[in-house]
Specification:
The complex is a heterodimer of chains A (about 120) and B (about 120). With about 120 residues, chain A is mainly beta. Helices cover about 0% and strands about 55% of the residues of chain A. Chain A has strands at about 5, 10-15, 20-25, 30-35, 45-50, 55, 65-70, 75-80, 85-95, 105, 110-115. In chain A, strands 2, 4, 5, 6, 9, 10 and 11 form a seven-stranded mixed beta sheet that branches. Chain A has a four-stranded antiparallel beta sheet with strand order 1-3-8-7, with no helix packed on it. Chain A is globular. Classes of the chains: A mainly beta (about 120), B mainly beta (about 120).
Chain lengths: ~120, ~120
């Protein structure tokens, strides 16, 4: 079983709604990630938090707002999304290490988002 | 710039046979790591195996092995004794030693295991 859990598994929201995706990891990792994945495509990095501070924002539109309340939790707040934002959103975590192996990313099961 | 290439969009394999999924990469960083992930239709990305650029031996994890040919910049995944549950999307990925938190992924290969 994965040690990175995401809720909800499925979410349908209207373009005027405000919703949040939640992620929790139990691996003691200090880096957490949000990825977006469209059908038949590889995951695309959105945000990275390291030691609860935002480290990377890959020019993501402001309608996506990440939050890292503590080292185990990561949220993605959604507001005024567009239908093209419909995708699988994957949360992940890793150690913070200077070695590539130490930075192996472990993913959650993902949240399937549909914007109508 | 780092780059990962998977040239096989789809592969078929008979149950109980072995299959090789191709991956080539490009980087100028002497320190890097190569990863393979499996993604079933349920969506979860499952980490399978890791190979470091300085590792002398090919990585193995159960039925998975990584055929690492550094001079050719290839890191092919070999799955032995295929099972129906191996049907999934497989992604090759790379992280450079100087790349910080960025892992880049190949386009993926869809594997179909036939009974």
């Amino acid at each position: 079983d994965t040690e990175v859990t995401q809720t909800p598994k499925h979410l349908v929201m209207g373009m005027t709604n405000k919703k949040s995706l939640k992620c929790e990891q139990h691996m003691g990792h200090r880096a957490m990630y949000w990825y977006k994945q469209k059908a038949k495509k590889p995951p695309e990095l959105m945000f990275v938090y390291s030691y609860e501070k935002l480290s990377i924002n890959e020019s993501v539109p402001s309608r996506f707002s990440p939050e890292c309340p503590n080292s185990s939790l990561l949220n993605l707040h959604l507001h005024a999304l567009q239908p093209e934002d419909s995708a699988l959103y994957l949360c992940a975590s890793s150690q913070v290490s200077s070695l590539p192996l130490g930075n192996t990313i472990y993913f959650g099961e993902g949240s399937w988002l549909t914007v109508v | 710039a780092q780059k990962i290439t998977q040239t096989q969009p789809g592969m078929f394999v008979q149950e109980k046979e072995a299959v090789t999924l191709d991956c080539t990469y490009d980087t100028s960083d002497p320190s890097y790591g190569l990863f393979w992930y499996k993604q079933p239709s349920s969506g979860e990305m499952i980490f399978l195996i890791y190979q470091g650029s300085y590792d002398q031996q090919n990585a193995t994890e159960g039925r998975y092995s990584l055929n690492f040919q550094k001079a050719r910049k290839s890191a092919n995944l070999v799955i032995s004794a295929s099972q129906l549950g191996d049907s999934a999307m497989y992604f090759c990925a790379m992280r450079e030693g100087t790349g910080g938190f960025k892992t880049i992924f190949g386009a993926g290969t869809r594997l179909f295991v036939k009974a």
